[in-house]
């Protein structure tokens, strides 16, 4: 399955993401970063004597460039997978990882897997979606590059719940920069929405009204693996275009 989906498992890095970044800076950044930092320092001083707004903007832009370059070097993304309980999040994660998906139980905490795909290291977080657990979702927002919202397309009764939860998430400041991929899952089930499930789901979830995030909806089946990879590819392309583009 691993090969079918084109993903490779990797060992989860022991150091935390933040710890790695700190270590990277302390051990001495590459020359181009040091040079840029000097220019930035200069910019900051000049700022005191000249047009403060202009130079502080230069400083911010410069900092952004450095961060982008560091991210580029890491080629690492953090993807957060959320959705109502029973939507199929854990099944999707296991399918990506080439694991058996016949025995899945509800997630009471979270699962994390680090996979490699197209040269990117993907840290995928799958958090339990039961109502009592949703207040903990916020603990996972930090540094999210991509939000994967999983919908059970056969669960028509809870589509309104689903829409409300997603709308609330999109107002979260810490998710403001994240790209949104909606997986309309369980397309293999006869009762799932309609033959034009994707368009219907996007209407029901009011996706057209989202102006704050780049988004895309993909119909898929975690059991058969259908369309999982094309969804992830779109997500990676969008994130890469936003955060790995240098200069
Ligand atoms: N037919 C079908 N069943 C699916 C699909 N994806 C998941 N399921 C089933 O749906 C049930 C719930 O799947 P999970 O992956 O545990 O759902 P979850 O979103 O992780 O649920 P929580 O951990 O409670 O948030 C399981 O019985 C899966 O086998 C799918 O694409 N098709
Ligand atoms: Mg789960």
Write up this protein:
There is one protein chain. With 247 residues, this protein is α/β, with parallel strands linked by helices. The chain has a domain at 75-244: Rossmann fold (3-Layer(aba) Sandwich), CATH 3.40.50. Helices cover 40% and strands 18% of the residues. It is built from eight helices and seven strands. It has helices spanning 2-5, 17-26, 31-49, 52-74, 89-96, 159-170, 197-204, 228-243; strands spanning 8-9, 76-82, 110-117, 120-127, 146-152, 179-185, 215-219. The protein has a seven-stranded mixed β-sheet with strand order 1-3-4-2-5-6-7, with helices on both faces. α3 (31-49) runs antiparallel to α4 (52-74). The radius of gyration is 20 Å and the shape is globular. Bound molecules: guanosine-5'-triphosphate and magnesium ion (MG). Magnesium ion is lined by residues 89-90, 106-107, 126, 128.
Summarize the structure.
By secondary structure, the chain is α/β, with parallel strands linked by helices.
CATH homologous superfamily heading of the domain at 75-244: P-loop containing nucleotide triphosphate hydrolases
- SSE order: HEHHHEHEEEHEHEH
Bound molecules: guanosine-5'-triphosphate, magnesium ion
How much of the sequence lies in strands comes to 15-25%
Strand order of the largest sheet: 1-3-4-2-5-6-7
Overall number of strands: 7
Q: How large is the count of helical segments?
A: 8
Unreliable segments (pLDDT under 50, ≥5 consecutive)?
11-50
What is the level 1 CATH name of the domain at 75-244? Alpha Beta
Average of per-residue pLDDT values: 78
From the 3D structure, determine the CATH topology of the domain at 75-244.
Rossmann fold
* Distance between the amino and carboxyl termini: 38 Å
The appropriate CATH architecture of the domain at 75-244 is 3-Layer(aba) Sandwich
Keywords: GTP-binding, Lipoprotein, Magnesium, Metal-binding, Myristate, Nucleotide-binding
InterPro entries: Arl2 (IPR045873), ARL2/3 (IPR044612), P-loop_NTPase (IPR027417), Small_GTP-bd (IPR005225), Small_GTPase_ARF/SAR (IPR006689)
Binding site for Mg(2+): 90, 107
GO cellular component, one term: centrosome
